[in-house]
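Ticket opened by: R.M.
Priority: normal
Category: complex prediction / small molecule

The reporter submitted a protein together with 2-phosphoglycolic acid and asked that the result be attached to this ticket for the collaborator who will pick it up next week. Submitted input follows.
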Amino acid sequence: MRIPVIAGNWKLFKTIHESVALVQELAPLVANSTGVEIVVAPVFTALSRVADAVKGSEIKLAAQDCYWEEEGAFTGEVAPKLLKDAGCSHVIIGHSERRQYFGETDITVNRKVKAAIAAGLSAIVCVGESLMERESEQTFSVIEAQIQGSLAGLTEADFAHVVIAYEPVWAIGTGKTASDAQAQEVHVFIRSLIGRLFSQSVADALRILYGGSVKPDNVKGLMSQPDIDGALVGGASLKAESFAAIAAFNG
Ligand code: PGA
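Result attached by the on-call engineer:
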């Protein structure tokens, strides 16, 4: 009942030309993947050209961040409605790299999530603990605070436009994936927390993705866990072949 989402976060990689070439290579490879939502997130400058390139395919488009105001004197920012205008259906919000390097907090994530939903986008909201937090057994309290803060004030209806990505910071770009059981344990925690904070039906319908060194050879194990509803993929999404292999996890 929860349609899996496989999303590729291209981070700060690829020119417009390279981005278009990547989706053109990817589109035929994922043309037959049914029952899975496929999303790619190129850099801002490539969005509208990639949007043209994915027309008529199953591939959906995400931005990697947004601002919360619609317009104004906010030099350098991009509003959710402009992402929509560029052809996006999704936006990644609160990625750990933004939290770590760009001062993103649960408060700014929350504003961005609300603005994205108001503009008609789906928000892929990222949470995850650092290695130090995991080793000092703070994983659940950190995740709880991030979820509570990032999703504060959302209505049940808003959740139709929310996907959560659990990405343990120590597993991102390190080649160290959380074990299937480690990931499942946190996903169950997040789902039950959403049940307590919002409602059981919201929790049951919510897609919770895992992210952090997802590759073709570990995706099956992760996706076989009952509460893992997809993947947010960094490095392995930069090549059509490996991303398509991940999207074909159920094949
Ligand atoms: P990775 O990145 O797959 O390269 O670990 C995941 C992410 O940061 O979303």
